[in-house]
Amino acid sequence: MTVAVELQDVRKSFVSKSSTTLALDSVHLQVQAGDVVTLIGPSGSGKSTCLRTINGLETITAGSIRIFGKSYGKAADAHILRRETAMIFQKFELFPHMNALENVALAPHLRLNMSRREALDRAEALLDRVGLKAHRMKYPRMLSGGQQQRVSIARALAVEPKILLCDEPTSALDPELVDEVLELLKSIAASGMTMIIVTHEMRFAREVSRTCHFFDAGRIVESGKTAEMLNQPQTPRLQAFLSSLKNL
Ligand code: ADP
Ligand code: MG
User: Fold this and answer.
1) What structural domains does the chain harbor?
2) Between vectors from CA 157 to CA 11 and to CA 67, what angle results, nearest 5°?
């Protein structure tokens, strides 16, 4: 088996004049190629920071990150990290002045040096794949939240990443729009993509991921098979977290 992502003893502190926050505190994580894992845990526990370090959006304070066996520690390597990974954000982060097609075509054109024509052809095929061919000329403000998130998924796939990172991809959506995005992510997972997904949707976590990691206060405090972990949480902290969700 090939290891896609390996974090060893990763620490990340954010230092300001008045305080230091240890956002990641000795995190160990291993994800096999083709696996889908979910990260769960309370707000502020380090889930987004973990994804951002894997994507090279944050440098790490200590430890090491390997992507397909290649080691990255320094900020200078971030552009290489970003080549292997793509990220989907809670708030879509589409460019408002570009239509769906242009949003998806931008990265292949700029980052992969594709001609504009080739990039637009690729974008069109991807928008078809996410079910938005008919909406390709629309600007983000003309699309529903679910459609915007599907455009941003097409945009992430446009650079042919080896690893797809998803940070609460449905948290900003109205409840009736959640399923269209989750179904799309499930179909991408089924295609063999390596995925790391931060989610508050426990039903989705069960359906999409074999392995789950529970973050609390910057640490992974419980890991295991998703169904077993959610059915029989071992640590008091995961037990408390899951019952807090049920009480919502
Ligand atoms: P989660 O995604 O689990 O809600 P985050 O990874 O966003 O948690 O945050 C983990 C901790 O790091 C929190 O205490 C948060 O306030 C802090 N943090 C995150 N990003 C920054 C930043 N850019 N500057 C300072 N502190 C940050
Ligand atoms: Mg977060």
Assistant:
1) 1-84+163-172+194-248 (3.40.50.300)
2) 35
CA of 115 to the centre of ligand 1 (A): 38
Structure tokens at 72: 């990255």
Supply the residue whose CA is at minimum distance from atom 7 of ligand 1: 48
Q: How much distance in Å is there from the Cα of 139 to the middle of ligand 1?
A: 31
| Ligand 1 within 6 A of CB of 49 | yes
Q: Is the pLDDT of residue 110 over 90?
A: no
The whole-angstrom separation of Cα 58 and Cα 197 is: 18
User: Region 150-178: what's the mean pLDDT?
Assistant: 95
pLDDT digits (tens, 9 = 90+) for 50-93: 999 999 889 899 999 999 988 876 555 666 666 789 999 999 99
> Does residue 171 line the site of ligand 1, with CB under 6 A?
no
